[in-house]
Amino acid sequence: MPKRRSRNRRRQQREQNNAACHHHRNPNEENRNNPDGVIVLGTYIHCEGCGNQVLKCLRGFQGVEGIEIDDKNHKVIVKGKRADPIKVSERLRKKTGKHVELISPKPIIEEIKEEKKPEPQVIEVVLKIYLHCEGCAKDVKHCIHDMEGVQTVDPDMEKNLVTVKGTMDAQKLVEFVSRRGGRHAEIVKQSNLKGSNNGESEGNKNETREECCVVHNYPTDRLAYAPQLFSDENPNSCSVM
Fold first, then answer.
1. Which of 40, 74, 157, 177 is most buried, judged by most C-beta within 10 A?
2. Strand partners, 75
3. What kind of membrane protein is this, topologically (predicted)?
4. Reading across the β-sheet that carries 38-42, which strands appear in turn?
């Protein structure tokens, strides 16, 4: 007896909790995916047994109030304002193993806006590293190329300088060389390269445009025309004739 009473109490508490949850739900959220309370699914139904299988799968499912099977058009009509179209279609697909198409209502797909990440800044860093042979220069070059963001590495043995271009951080580059290559490096020069070529090209374009647009205005009254060959103004016209 005490066990039955405890079970009944638990059931009553569950029912009360479920009722409270349904009471506090927002009706707009429930009808968002299923505003009309009617779900139309498309699946192949070739006999009465297939229809009974569909009924067993969806009967008593969350929010399902009624089920109609249209075996001629191979459609399943599910009624229920609280029924979720996506969950109902997945339920039928898992239980029957058939292809299920959600005809209506169409699922609401929220567009996810991708945040545009700023383009990395391309820099040129000149490092002071002691290079006493070609082997050292090759080792340093290979070591720096292993760092992410490095584009080009140009070692200069005579000046003990290494020019690195890329999107890496200059201070992290020094730490990477000392940690990975075991060499002491110092930053001699650092400059930004992004946009420099574009600026030069735009400047050259503007100069060419200005040169093309220059118009030389000469006074027309000072222009002297050469005399014609057989005109009266030509003193040698008679001799030519």
1. 177
2. 42, 70
3. Peripheral membrane protein
4. 66-70, 75-79, 38-42, 101-104
Which whole-number Å values give the CA distances from 165 to 149, 153, 156, 159, 221, in the listed order?
A: 9, 7, 14, 18, 61
Q: Pick from 91, 40, 42: which is nearest to 66 by CA?
A: 40
Angle at which helix 48-58 crosses helix 85-96, to 10 degrees, equals 130
Nearest of 172, 209, 214, 165 to residue 190 by alpha carbon: 165
Q: Give me the residue label for tokens 């860093």.
A: 125
Q: Could you check whether the bond before residue 105 is cis, i.e. omega within 30 degrees of 0?
A: yes
**What CA–CA distance (Å, rounded) separates 37 from 30?**
10
Contact 150, 168 (CB under 8 A): yes
- DSSP assigned state of 205: H
Task: Tell me how far apart the terminal alpha carbons of the chain are, to the nearest angstrom.
Answer: 147
Give the tens place of pLDDT for each residue, 31-61.
577 788 899 999 888 888 888 989 998 988 9
**Both tokens of residue 58?**
């969806």
| Burial class for 27, CB neighbours closer than 10 Å (0-12, 13-18, 19+) | exposed
Residue 193 CA to residue 65 CA, distance in Å, equals: 67
Residue 196: Cβ within 10 Å count? 12
DSSP state of 152: E
pLDDT digits (tens, 9 = 90+) for 92-146: 988 888 888 889 888 766 555 666 778 888 999 999 998 888 888 888 888 898 8
